[in-house]
Amino acid sequence: KRWREASDAIEAAIAPVVESQDLSGVGVIRAVVQALRSGDVLHLGSSYSARDVEMYAAQNETSAFTAGEVSVYMNRGVNGIDGVISTAIGEALATSRPTYLICGDLTLLHDLNGLVLGADEPCPDITLVVIDNDGGGIFSTLENAEAEGFERVIATPLGKDISAILRAIGVTTEVVTTSGELATHLSERPNGLKAIVARVGSREQEARLRAKLRQVSLS
């Protein structure tokens, strides 16, 4: 009972902070989790995606996720992002259930060829939700974020148009920059192969948001 009360108190504290930013990585995570329905499959990319679901997904009593009615999967390879796309597609095909994948832009690019399906291959019902902050956002929360060479060696921004790359290989893609746009596209159930690219704030902004969320949670 005490844990549940603490959880409710933290949710009440962090919700206004998340909502104060129109579209953030944390906000994307919360929106996707809230959109899930009973029987859905959710695959989580590593780094921010997995951690944010664990820490910040709203524990709405009426949600399928909170009720344990969603199957959640993850990879954990050599560096955490090996074959994430391919695994999620395999889950969608094996279960024949609506599937969502949440991942960052680097995770997507790391296994991009998993989206290049053969002409005679079955097509999964999967929606990819890509959090695009141009690089490894989680590293901006580390103490070496100010070190010389951090951007090139650790954050590894690629400066690529993720939506253009996805469309070039035949993936139906929507770009969202606001929470309202995201909610509109999440209201459409997975039907075939589709991607939603969420262009969130800079990695530095995301790091500051998470620091603020920790602060209000502990106060």
Q: What features would you describe in this structure?
A:
α1 runs antiparallel to α9 (203-218). This protein is of the alpha/beta class. The chain has helices at residues 2-19, 25-35, 48-56, 84-95, 105-110, 150-155, 162-168, 179-186, 203-218, and strands spanning 41-44, 71-74, 99-104, 126-132, 172-176, 193-199. It contains nine helices and six strands, in the order ααβαβαβαβααβαβα. A six-stranded parallel sheet has the order 2-1-3-4-6-5, with helices on both faces. α3 (48-56) links the parallel β1 and β2. The longest helix has 18 residues, at 2-19.
Strand element count = 6
Q: Find the structural class using helix and strand composition.
A: alpha/beta
Question: Largest sheet, described in full?
Answer: 6 strands, parallel
Count, helices = 9
**What does the radius of gyration come to?**
17 Å
Task: List the SSEs and their pairings.
Blueprint: H1 2-19, H2 25-35, E1 41-44, H3 48-56, E2 71-74, H4 84-95, E3 99-104, H5 105-110, E4 126-132, H6 150-155, H7 162-168, E5 172-176, H8 179-186, E6 193-199, H9 203-218
Parallel strand pairs: 1-2, 1-3, 3-4, 4-6, 5-6
Helix pairs in contact: 1-9, 2-3, 2-8
Kindly summarize this structure in a few lines:
The protein is of the alpha/beta class and 219 residues long.
Give short descriptive properties of this protein.
219 residues, alpha/beta, six-stranded parallel sheet, 42% helix
